[in-house]
Amino acid sequence: MSAPIQLQPGETFILNVGPQHPATHGVLRVKMEMDGEYIVKAETVLGYVHRMHEKMGENRTYAQYLPNLSRLDYLGALGYTHGHVLLIERAAGIEVPERAEYIRAITVELNRLASHLFWFGCYVMDLGGFSPLMYALEDREYILDMLEAVTGARLTYCYYRFGGLYNDVDDDFIEAANRFIPRMRKSLKKYAALVTGNIIFQKRLEGIGHISAEMCRKYGATGAVARGSGIDFDVRKNEPYSVYPEFDFDIPVYHECDSMARFKVRMDEMEQSLRIIEQGLAKLPGGPIMAEKKPKNIKLPVGDFYQAVETARGSFGIRIVSDGDKNAYRLKLRSPTYSNMHLFDEACEGMMIMDALAFMGSLDLVIPEIDR
Amino acid sequence: MSLTVLNVIVAVVIAIGFAALNAAYLVWAERRGAARIQRRPGPNINGPFGLLQPPLDGIKLMTKQIMIPGGADKILFMVAPVLAMAPAILSFVTIPFSETIVAHNMDIGLLMIFAFASMGALAVLFAGWGSRNKYSVMASVRAVSQNVSYEIPMLITAITVVMITGSMDLKVITNAQAGGFWHWNIFPSLHSPLMPLSFILFFICSLAETNRAPFDLGEAESELVAGFHTEYGSMGFGLFFMGEYANIVIGASLTTILFLGGWDCPFGLFPGVWWFLLKIYLLIATFIWIRWTFPRTTIYGLLNLSWKILIPLSLFNLLLTAGLLKVF
Amino acid sequence: MIQETTREALQSLFAESAPAVEVEAGAPRGNGVITRDYNAHGYHLDAQVAADQLVAAVEIIDQAGFFIESITGVDWIKENQLEVIYDFSRYDFDTCRVVIRTRVPRDQPIVPTITTIYAGANWHERETHDFFGIKFAGHPHLIPLLLPEDADFHPLLKDFKA
């Protein structure tokens, strides 16, 4: 819903959304120049939780740096640590046992599911519907319990090791995961009936926050933002890594380019994650969970290495420039929401504030991940 | 004469007590109800079923310091919460709970309630403007435009009922519906076949008038922080909160009187205040249910709904009823 | 497919047709395009260009339909140079990751902006400016992004002392 703006000088005012604002879910600040309820210009101000993880990467050994990765995105931490271990394994040439790769895929997908569930609940709460958050948190609780049992943490996991895992999964985990899948499928049906089918909800999202595929490309948007704009892009399919080629799953793509499309993409992704978990549990091979040949102190060869993974929020990239030492000469984290959020300034111009915040929610922001 | 005055004073005190008690315990009911809907226990620590929660909340709010933001308009800022609560209480004076339980019945009771209901918008405007907060101003502008646009279809629908009954006296309106549920205004009659529609219109409008979800755009906490009461703490906030619930009771009472036969029993048995209370609390439960189920609408969606759908429909209904009254 | 065409297009930037070969490890390489082993490095094409060729190189990438992944810097203090690295990738299944890098002297770190080509480069360039002090000539709004607004230090420089 956009209206032509006839701007008179001095008729606008600056609205400071954040750093503490209920809709920004963290310390994000957007300086909005408003004409009544319409946004004339928005400028995102970042850096309120900037911790300079990249400098820490230069001062710590690769193994010491592992826990840092899970502090980027506290909702989908496993995906980020996965990227790091994959990069080190690629550069140092470490072979990972198949069982470890399967468990990694299962736990990453569980974490993705937990992240999407939390986003789903918070997003509906942004739009003023409170109850779905509680249902989503209940489902998420099962995932966190399962992950806690194997990884020892509920949010900031440090489960993967170079060449394998820190802990094998037991029968309890497999049984709990197998019980969880039908339960989650039932919940997804409930969400579709309660939220996706709701007329108010549809009215609030359809046509709101249009992002064209070309705009995605210019800003480097990935994840559900790109897939909601009709771009069939998922690192798991485009640049297969780990054991993802072994799984049969689809990449949901919607062509409406609006917030509803992004919402539907994430809802469908939950089902796809369930499929991957299901297949992973069925195919889970035996064997060791740790590579046998692994140097004690990992040193990478001189060079420039890059690894992209698909996290819950999009394509996460990690680049290490190595000078042959045991820590990185330069470590760069390419976080997906950084690029996704960058769209917001341009896309929200001319929107009403409530639509803009509905649009912002559909980007699935995690602020520590933007600020790093 | 003095006895009448005393009577009125006692009745008014009772009305205030009823309003305050209702406001306090509806908060409890809402929190418990919401908790039920969301599969959690809700307030259950203080007293049996958490029943001591509202008075303790009241004590907490009253012992807190009243903060007035720098640069705020002090008078408007302080007057607004009072203005939010007072009209709601005053409206109770003329609501007939049963044949005998009414503080002061008036020939123009309906008009008086609507007159007081309009003052709620003023309270919101004062609060928003007086707070000197951009979010509050935006929210109060929203809330006022919302109240203004929803009063129109609400009044037109009420006029339909008044035309059928021929009176603005709430007691007369109720008595006209006596004798079983088929006499209630909610069901279509010869003169007004679209009565169920009127009921739905009126119900939607009363949701919007009380700033309740899905029409709580004046608060819209995910967009406008807490809307017009962003800057309010302590009992200033408490009064807004209680005013909201008192307004809900008024809205439910009015809907009951106009459409659901007031204290009349559906089957003609034991008419009395209990039926009235049962009906209003059922309606309030529906309010709560709706709030915790639906997401919020948008401001333009809300205004479009009023001006493009509700007002034409209610006008059509009015014309149809007027025509049929002339014919039959 | 796209890998070859992009490679040829990038190659046309350089006068000599032979690609620059990486000199011994660690030493600065000359400008030119190198095809990398994807399995070892995680990207396909690695082009080093001069700072004044940068916009032309990024235009080629833009024409070919790549999306921008990120921009970052590296401080090569021994060679007294700052490197700016641009990452590009593709949405389609014709996977090709392109890395474009350019080196500028440390005492005069000026690189042309590519915000006119990729709007999304805006924040990446601001971030690189924050961390390395690299100036992007023509950038519309080169103020600190992640660092405080009055920051006058560049923490990822190797000679930065906290």
Describe this structure in words.
The complex is a heterotrimer of chains A (372), B (328) and C (162). By secondary structure, chain A is an alpha+beta fold. Chain A has 2 domains: 1-50 and 348-365, no CATH class; 53-334, Cytochrome-c3 Hydrogenase, chain B (Orthogonal Bundle), CATH 1.10.645.10. Chain A has helices at residues 53-59, 62-69, 77-92, 98-126, 131-151, 171-196, 199-205, 213-219, 224-227, 235-238, 259-283, 336-347, 353-362, 367-371, and strands spanning 13-17, 29-35, 38-45, 160-161, 164-165, 303-311, 314-322, 330-334. In chain A, helix 2 runs antiparallel to helix 3 (77-92), helix 3 runs antiparallel to helix 4 and helix 5 runs antiparallel to helix 6 (171-196). The two termini of chain A are 34 Å apart. The mean pLDDT of chain A is 86. Chain B has one domain (64-327). Helices cover 66% and strands 0% of the residues of chain B. Chain B has helices at 2-37, 53-62, 74-92, 109-131, 134-165, 170-176, 195-209, 234-259, 273-291, 299-327. In chain B, helix 3 (74-92) runs antiparallel to helix 4 and helix 5 (134-165) runs parallel beside helix 10. The N and C termini of chain B lie far apart (44 Å). Chain C has 162 residues and is of the alpha/beta class. Chain C has a domain at 2-113: Beta Polymerase, domain 2 (2-Layer Sandwich). In chain C, 22% of the residues lie in helices and 26% in strands. Chain C is built from 4 helices and 7 strands; from the N terminus they run αβαβαββββαβ. Chain C has helices at 2-11, 38-41, 54-63, 121-132; strands at residues 32-35, 45-49, 67-76, 81-89, 98-105, 110-112, 135-137. In chain C, strands 1-2-5-4-3 form a 5-stranded mixed beta sheet, covered by helices on one side. The longest helix of chain C has 12 residues, at 121-132. The model of chain C has no long low-confidence stretch (mean pLDDT 82). The chains are: A alpha+beta (372), B mainly alpha (328), C alpha/beta (162). Chains A and C meet through helix 1, helix 3, helix 8, strand 6 and strand 7 of A and helix 2, strand 3, strand 4 and helix 4 of C.
